[in-house]
Design a protein that fits this description.
The chain has 231 residues and is of the alpha/beta class. It has helices at residues 4-11, 15-32, 49-55, 71-79, 112-115, 122-134, 151-160, 172-179, 200-213, and strands spanning 39-43, 60-65, 86-90, 103-109, 135-146, 184-190, 224-230. A seven-stranded mixed beta sheet has the order 3-2-1-4-5-7-6, with helices on both faces.
Length: 231
C-alpha cells in the first residue's frame, strides 16, 4: 500500500481513483523485475511523478514531456534521492527519437487526450505505433488514461474544465484500438462520482461509492482506463 503522501507525489490529483493504475502496474513490475536491470520511458512526465514511482523501484527511467519536464520534476527526484536513476528528454509521443526495441517499459498517465486534441484522432494510431516500435520484444506499456465516460462527464468538462473543449477524451473503442497491436493486453475501467467531487475531504467517500458501484456500471460510464499491454 502507498501512503497518501506517496500517491500525491506520483499522481498529483484525484489520487485514490488513479491509484488503481499503480496497483495494476505493480503486478506487472513484480513479474518482470526480479534479477533484471530495466530501462523505462515516461511519456508526458511533466512534474515527474510516475518517473519517481519507477525510480523508487530501482528502474532507470527517462522522464520526458513535450517541451521537456518541468523544473519541479528534477526537484522531486532530488528530494527523493533518485536523481541517479532519472534522465530528462523533450519528446513528442508521435515522434519518439529512440531506436527500435530500446525500452523494457513505456508508461504514461493522461496524455492521449492532448495527443489527439483538436480532433487530431489520427495521432492515436501514430503514438501507438511509436510506443510499440521502441519497446523491446516482451516489453510492457503501462497506461492510465481519461475516458469520455457519461454525458454528465462531458457536460461538466465543457463547463468547468478550461481545456475540456479541446482535450480528446477517449471512447472504449479508441482505447481498445490503441493497444490492439500488442500481443497481450488488459484494460480496466473505473470511476464515476469521484470526477465531480473537488472537495478533498469528500474524495474518499466518493472513491468508496465508486468502488461499490464499479461492477454494476457499464464501462462506457467510467472516466479512467488503466492497465498494460505486452509487445
Amino acid at each position: 500500500m502507498y501512503t497518501p503522501a506517496q500517491l500525491h507525489q506520483y499522481l498529483e490529483w484525484d489520487e485514490l481513483t488513479w491509484s488503481k493504475a499503480l496497483y495494476s502496474w505493480d503486478e506487472i513490475l513484480l513479474e518482470v523485475q526480479p534479477g533484471k536491470s530495466l530501462l523505462a520511458l515516461e511519456l508526458g512526465g511533466r512534474h515527474g511523478g510516475i518517473s519517481l514511482y519507477l525510480a523508487q523501484k530501482g528502474i532507470k527511467t527517462v522522464c520526458s514531456d513535450f517541451g521537456g519536464p518541468t523544473p519541479k520534476a528534477k526537484a522531486l527526484h532530488e528530494e527523493n534521492k533518485v536523481s541517479n536513476l532519472v534522465s530528462y528528454m523533450d519528446i513528442d509521443a508521435t515522434t519518439i527519437n529512440y531506436p527500435d526495441n530500446h525500452f523494457d517499459i513505456v508508461v504514461f498517465k493522461s496524455i492521449l487526450g492532448v495527443v489527439a486534441a483538436n480532433n487530431k484522432i489520427e495521432n492515436l494510431e501514430i503514438a501507438s505505433k511509436e510506443i510499440y516500435r521502441i519497446l523491446k520484444p516482451g516489453g510492457y506499456l503501462l497506461f492510465a488514461e481519461n475516458m469520455k465516460a457519461s454525458c454528465l462527464h462531458t457536460l461538466a468538462r465543457r463547463w468547468f474544465v478550461p481545456w475540456g473543449a479541446n482535450w480528446h477524451y477517449l471512447t472504449l473503442q479508441e482505447m481498445g484500438a490503441f493497444v490492439a497491436p500488442f500481443a497481450l493486453h488488459k484494460i480496466n475501467y473505473f470511476g464515476f462520482f469521484s470526477a465531480f467531487i473537488k472537495i478533498k475531504k469528500l474524495k474518499k467517500a466518493a472513491y468508496l461509492i465508486d468502488s461499490i458501484k464499479n461492477i454494476f456500471l457499464p464501462n462506457r460510464f467510467k472516466y479512467i482506463s488503466y492497465g498494460w499491454a505486452k509487445k
